[in-house]
Amino acid sequence: MADTDGASERRDFHADVPQRTEGFFLKGSAQYDWGMRNRLARIFDPASGRTVMLAFDHGYFQGPTTGLERIDLSIVPLIPWADTLMLTRGALRTMIPAAARSAIVLRASGGPSVLKELSNEEIALDIEDAIRLNAAALAVQVFVGGEHETKSIHNLTRLVDAGNRYGIPILAVTAVGKEMVRDAKYFRLATRICAELGAHYVKTYYVEDGFETVTSCCPVPIVIAGGKKQPELDALTMARNAIECGASGVDMVVYDDVQIEPSDASFQEAAKFAAEAAKGFTLGDPLSESTRLGPLSSRMQLDRVRSYIKKGVEEGAELVAGGADAPEGLPGGYFVKPTVFGKVKNSMTIAQEEIFGPVLAIIPYRDEEDAVKIANDSPYGLAGAVWSKDDARAQKVARRIRAGQIDVNGGAFNMNAPFGGFKQSGHGREAGVYGLEEFLELKSLQLKG
Predict the structure, then answer these.
(1) Mind listing the pLDDT tens digit for each residue in 80-137?
(2) Catalytic one of 151, 185, 203, 310
C-alpha cells in the first residue's frame, strides 16, 4: 500500500489552462480514429503535409521490369530519401531491411499479368498479414471506365471496410485504360469516385491543364503518379507544379518500362514509313520478277506466323499494317501479309521470340543507351542492324549489341565473314577462317621441363 502520509496536498492541476485539442494537418482526415491518423502521419510529414513515395510494386504484373531486376541494388540504397515505400509483401519480406524507417504501403490487389486484361484484379492480401507486416496503408488499383470497373471498385470498398475496422488507410490508385483520355475531366471523375467510396487518399496522374480542379474537388489528399519517363529536371518541375496545384505528394517510380505515346512525332513517322513500305511488297510467285515476297515454307510455318500476329494483337501491340488474315487475291498458298506492329513493349512475345516471317515490331526507345539495352534484352542473338547518319557512331553501337552479325547502314552480306549467333542462337561459326577452325583439332605436347 502506498505511503500517503507525506503526500502534499498541493498539485499542479493547471485549472486555469484549458486543454487544447489539436487538429489534424491532413486534408479530410480530422474525423478518423487515432490509429488511422497516426499511420497517415507516418506517410505524410506532419511538418509539411507532404510525402515522397517510392513505388516499385510493378513486379506483381510485369515481373522483373527494366530498372527493377534487382530491388536490393536499385531500391534499397534510395530508402533513406523516401517517406513512403509502395511495394508487394513478397518484396518487403525478402529484400527490404526491417530497420527501414519509411512508411510501408502494401500492394493489396492483383491477378492478371501484363499479358492479360489488367482490370480483372482481385484482392490479393489478407488484412491480418498487413498488420503483421506493420503496414501504414494498403493500395488497390481502381479502373474507372475499364472493362472490369465494377469489380475493381468493389475491391476498393471491401478494403476500405477492412481498413476502417483495423485503422489502416487505403490508397486508391487510378488506372488509365487504353481507351481513357488523360485529362482533368477524367481524373476529376476517377478521384472523386474513389474518395466518395471511402479511400483515405488517392494516387493519380498529373495533367498540366486543370490539375488544380482535380485536387480541389477531391476531399482527400492526392499523390501524383510517376507517369512517363522524362529527364530529371522535367520530372522535378512537374512535381513542383503538381504540389503548387494542390497535390500532397509525389511518387518517384524507379522502373523504366518506357513506351512512347502515339502522339510522339518520331514514332508516328517511323510507323507510317514502315506501313507504306509493307504495302509496297508484291506477294506472289517467287519465280516472277515482280514478286517481292513469296510464300512460307509449309502450312506449319504459316500457322506459326499467324499465331504470333494474333498474339501481338492480344498483348496490346498496335497493328499498323497487315494482319493474320489471308492476303487478297491469294486464297491459296502459304502467304502472310507483310505485318507491322507499333507500340510494342520489349516484354511482348513478338519482341522476345523468333517469328521467322514477315512481321516487324517497332519498339520505341528513349536514347542510345536505352536502344542498346532493348536490343540485348533477348534470349537470341543471331543478327541485327544499326542505322545512323554517323558511320562511326553506328559502328560503336553495333559493337555493343550481343549478336553474331550486325549490318551497319545497310552493309551487304559478306560470305567470307564468320556467321553464327550468341545466346540461344547457337555457338560456333560458319564461313571464313573461324568457320574452318571448327574442323580442326588441337593437340598439346607435355614436355619434360
Answers:
(1) 999 999 999 999 999 999 999 999 999 999 888 878 888 889 999 999 999 999 999 9
(2) 203
Q: What is the pTM of this model?
A: 0.58
pLDDT digits 0-9 by tens, 264-291: 666 778 888 888 888 888 888 888 888 8
- The reply to whether 203 belongs to the active site is yes
Per-residue H/E/C for the chain: CCCCCCCCCCCCCCCCCCCCCCCCCCCCCCCCCHHHHHHHHHHCCCCCCCEEEEECCCHHHHCCCCCCCCHHHHCHHHHHHCCEEEECHHHHHHHCCCCCCCEEEEECEECCCCCCCCCCCEECCCHHHHHHCCCCEEEEEECCCCCCHHHHHHHHHHHHHHHHHHCCCEEEEECCCCCCCCCHHHHHHHHHHHHHCCCCEEEECCCCCCHHHHHHCCCCCEEECCCCCCCHHHHHHHHHHHHHCCCCEEECCCCCCCCCCCCCHHHHHHHHHHHHHHHCCCECCCCCCCCCECCCCCHHHHHHHHHHHHHHHHCCCEEEECCCCCCCCCCCCCCCCCEEEECCCCCCHHHHCCCCCCEEECCCCCCHHHHHHHHHCCCEECEEEECCCCHHHHHHHHHHCCCCEEEECCCCCCCCCCECCEECCCCCCECHHHHHHCCCCCCCCCCCC
